[in-house]
Design brief:
The complex is a heterodimer of chains A (about 110) and B (about 110).
Chain A (H helix, E strand, L loop, with lengths): L3 E4 L2 E4 L5 E7 L5 E7 L6 E7 L2 E4 L7 E4 L5 E6 L8 E8 L9 E2 L3 E5 L1
Parallel strand pairs in A: 2-11
Antiparallel strand pairs in A: 1-3, 3-8, 4-5, 4-9, 5-6, 7-8, 9-10, 9-11
Chain B lengths: L2 E4 L4 E4 L4 E3 L1 E4 L5 E7 L5 E7 L5 E4 L2 E4 L9 E3 L8 E8 L8 E2 L3 E6 L1
Parallel strand pairs in B: 2-12
Antiparallel strand pairs in B: 1-4, 3-9, 5-6, 5-10, 7-8, 8-9, 10-11, 10-12
The chains are: A mainly beta (about 110), B mainly beta (about 110).
Chain lengths: ~110, ~110
């Protein structure tokens, strides 16, 4: 089945230790998104790629970086995680075109910062 | 700019009760409207959508009608089950402008047996 896969599902890191979260998709969608979701809140968009074009949200901290080496994969790098970065990180994809832009989400990676 | 307003939760119901979760929106242009559901510990899943005024989206017994005159997209279900317990997000996507979706803050639904 076509899907969005996130690894790992749970990630524990230490304060200040770089961590990378990964996302892959078999949908061949041209747009990929990274969201941060804290408890009882809506997902907050960090950045997205439209093909290879990177789009950063204005309020995304510099501590967060992303890479998209090809259509299928996208990575979220947190250079120096702080306690406030503990959250669920959601990857999503969509295909841009006329009409509705349904997003397809992965199961998320829950990040714990010790 | 675009915005989505959802009713505050949690909504607590008994099994087989009728459900309504209100959602209103503000948008420039002609947005598409969505309801996503998030079960505990999981990502969001599309529940239903509507792309133009008066369209009704439906899935798994849930339905919502795109009301342009009241800028609303309320979610309804005639008889909820315990398994419907989740967080529900209303969202819009303005294909005529930015294709980035705007999410509401989510409404938690708790269904008791």
């Amino acid at each position: 089945d076509a899907m969005v896969i996130q690894n790992p599902r749970y990630q524990v890191t230490q304060f200040g230790k770089p961590v990378t979260l990964s996302c892959s998709q078999t949908l061949n969608h041209n747009v990929m998104y990274w969201y941060q979701q804290k408890s009882s809140q809506a997902p907050k968009l960090l950045f997205h790629y439209y093909d290879k074009d990177f789009n950063n949200e204005a309020d995304t901290p510099d501590n967060f970086q992303s890479r998209r080496p090809n259509t299928s994969f996208c990575f979220l790098d947190i250079r120096s995680p702080g306690l406030g970065d503990a959250a669920m990180y959601l990857c999503a994809t969509s295909t841009r075109g006329a009409g509705a832009e349904t997003q397809y989400f992965g199961p998320g990676t829950r990040l714990l910062v010790l | 700019g675009n915005s989505v307003t959802q009713m505050e939760g949690p909504v607590t119901l008994s099994e087989e009760a009728f459900l309504t979760i209100n959602c209103t929106y503000t948008a420039t242009g002609y947005p598409s409207l969505f309801w996503y559901v998030q079960y505990p510990g999981e990502g969001l899943q599309l529940l239903l959508k509507a792309t133009k005024a008066d369209d009704k989206g439906s899935n798994k017994g849930f339905e919502a009608t795109y009301r342009k005159e009241t800028t609303s997209f309320h979610l309804e279900k005639g008889s909820v089950q315990v398994s419907d317990s989740a967080v529900y997000f209303c969202a819009l996507s303005d294909a005529g402008g930015s294709y980035i979706p705007t999410f509401g803050r989510g409404t938690s639904l708790i269904v008791h047996p």
